[in-house]
Design goal:
Helix content is 68%, strand content 1%. It has a two-stranded antiparallel ribbon with strand order 1-2. The longest helix is centred in the last third of the chain and has 33 residues. It is globular and about 60 Å long.
C-alpha cells in the first residue's frame, strides 16, 4: 500500500469544496500522513541523521526561530494566523520527507518502483477517462491533478527521476514508458514544465558531454537558444510561445511582461531591486521577516509588478516559489542555509552514483530541482519538493548500513 499512496493526487476543489483559484493539488498521502507516521513509529526503526536531514533540520529550526522573533517585534509585518498557516505547510513538508525516507529505506526497490509506475498509469487512465486525449480543441491534461503545471512538475521531478533510476528488465518496456511519459508531459502544455525539462537536459549537456569550461557554457547557451527558437517557430501560436515572445518584447518594462512570468520569477526581481532605507531594512534583508510575512512583497517588488500579481490572485499568499519564501521569510542567512542543504544533496548524489547505487544522471535532477525552486513549489508541502531528497537520503542510509556490515 505504501508504495502506491504517496503519488495519487486528488483535486482539492472537488474534495474540499474550496475556491479553484486558491487551491493546491492534494495528495492522498497527505490525508493519510498521520496514519502512515503512526505505522512507521510502531515499527520502532532507528532514527538516522545524515548530512541531508541535518542540514534540512538546521534550516527549519532557523526559520521557526526567526519567525517567532518576528511575531514578537514585527506585529505589523507578520500575523499569528499567517505564521500558523505557513508553519503547518512546513511541518507537513518535513513529515512528508520523514515518511517517504522511511518508506524508501525499509522497502524493497522493486516494490517502490512498481507502486510509482502504478500511480503513473492512474494518471494516464484518468486522462483517458476524462477525454483529455480525445478532445479536438486546446485542452491541457491534468488527470487527477488540480492544475496541469502541478502534473508537469511531478512528471519531471518524480516520474522521470524514477524512470531514469529504475533498472529495466525489458528495453521494450523502457521505450513504452518513456513514450507514454512524453505524450502526457507534452499535453500538459506547461511552460514551466517545459523549462524544467530543458534545464535538466542542459545540465546533462554540461555535466556529461563536456568538462565545464567557458566555451562549453557558450555552447550550452546556444543550445538553449536554438531549442527555444525552433519551438517558437514550429509552434508560434502556442501559449508558451506567445508568453515567451511577450516577455522578450517587454524586457525594458517589467510591468508589461505577462504576470505568469513575473509571478514565477519574483524572487529574482526582488533581489535585483533591493532598497535599504533604514537599519530595519538591512536586518530584514539579512535575517528575514518570518513565515507568513507575505505582505512584505509589496515593499520588495516594484509597485506595478506587485499590482499585476495581486490582480490575478484571489488569496493572501503572493509568494509563488519556494525560493521567494526562503528569501522573504529567512533572508540571506536563510538562503545560505537552504543552498547548503542543496549542496549536501549534490554531494550525497555524487557518492551514491560513484558506488553505482543510483544513476549518474541523478545529480542533474538535483540541479533542476534547485532551479525549479526559483519559479515553483510555493507551498513547503509540495510533494515534488521532497521526493528526490527523501529518495537520496534513504539510499545513503542503506549505503552506510551496508558499509558498516562490511567493516564488521
Amino acid at each position: 500500500m505504501w508504495y502506491f499512496l504517496p503519488f495519487i493526487a486528488i483535486e482539492s476543489p472537488r474534495v474540499l469544496g474550496i475556491n479553484y483559484k486558491a487551491s493546491q493539488t492534494l495528495y492522498l498521502f497527505k490525508v493519510l500522513l498521520p496514519i502512515i507516521l503512526l505505522f512507521l513509529i510502531s515499527r520502532k526503526k532507528k532514527i538516522y541523521f545524515t548530512p541531508i536531514s541535518s542540514s534540512l533540520a538546521l534550516y527549519a529550526i532557523y526559520l521557526v526561530f526567526v519567525s517567532l522573533i518576528a511575531l514578537i517585534f514585527l506585529p505589523d509585518i507578520i500575523s499569528f494566523k499567517a505564521f500558523l498557516r505557513q508553519l503547518m505547510s512546513l511541518i507537513i513538508g518535513l513529515l512528508t520527507f520523514v515518511a517517504l525516507r522511511n518508506i524508501f529505506t525499509f522497502s524493497r526497490d522493486s516494490d517502490i518502483y512498481k507502486g510509482i509506475l502504478a500511480a503513473f498509469f492512474v494518471i494516464i487512465l484518468f486522462a483517458v477517462s476524462r477525454g483529455e486525449f480525445l478532445r479536438g480543441e486546446f485542452y491541457r491534461i491534468r488527470a487527477t491533478f488540480t492544475e496541469p503545471s502541478h502534473l508537469a512538475y511531478d512528471l519531471v521531478s518524480i516520474y522521470l527521476f524514477v524512470l531514469v533510476n529504475m533498472p529495466f528488465q525489458s528495453r521494450r518496456l523502457k521505450v513504452c514508458l518513456f513514450v507514454l511519459w512524453s505524450v502526457v508531459f507534452v499535453l500538459t502544455y506547461s511552460g514551466s514544465g517545459y523549462v524544467s525539462l530543458l534545464i535538466f537536459l542542459t545540465v546533462l549537456f554540461v555535466q556529461f558531454l563536456a568538462k565545464f569550461k567557458i566555451k562549453h557554457l557558450l555552447l550550452t547557451t546556444l543550445f538553449m537558444l536554438f531549442t527555444i527558437i525552433v519551438y517558437c517557430t514550429l509552434f508560434s501560436e502556442s501559449y508558451v510561445s506567445r508568453i515567451l515572445m511577450a516577455t522578450v518584447g517587454n524586457l525594458s518594462d517589467l510591468t508589461k511582461i505577462p504576470v505568469s512570468v513575473t509571478d514565477r520569477l519574483q524572487v529574482l526581481i526582488m533581489m535585483s531591486d533591493i532598497k535599504l532605507i533604514e537599519a530595519k531594512d538591512f536586518l530584514l534583508l539579512f535575517f528575514g521577516s518570518g513565515m507568513g510575512s507575505d505582505s512584505r512583497i509589496a515593499q520588495l517588488l516594484p509597485r506595478g509588478i506587485y499590482a499585476n500579481i495581486v490582480s490575478v490572485k484571489g488569496y493572501g499568499s503572493f509568494l509563488s516559489s519556494a525560493l521567494s519564501k526562503v528569501y522573504v521569510y529567512s533572508g540571506i542567512a536563510g538562503m545560505t542555509l537552504y543552498l547548503f542543504y542543496f549542496m549536501k544533496l549534490i554531494k550525497t548524489s555524487r557518492i551514491l552514483s560513484r558506488k553505482n547505487i543510483i544513476s549518474k544522471y541523478s545529480e542533474g535532477f538535483i540541479w533542476t530541482l534547485l532551479a525549479m525552486t526559483f519559479y515553483t513549489f510555493g507551498p513547503y508541502s509540495s510533494m515534488a519538493l521532497w521526493f528526490i531528497p527523501a529518495f537520496l537520503d534513504a539510499k545513503y542510509i542503506g549505503y552506510l548500513h551496508n558499509r558498516s556490515k562490511i567493516e564488521k
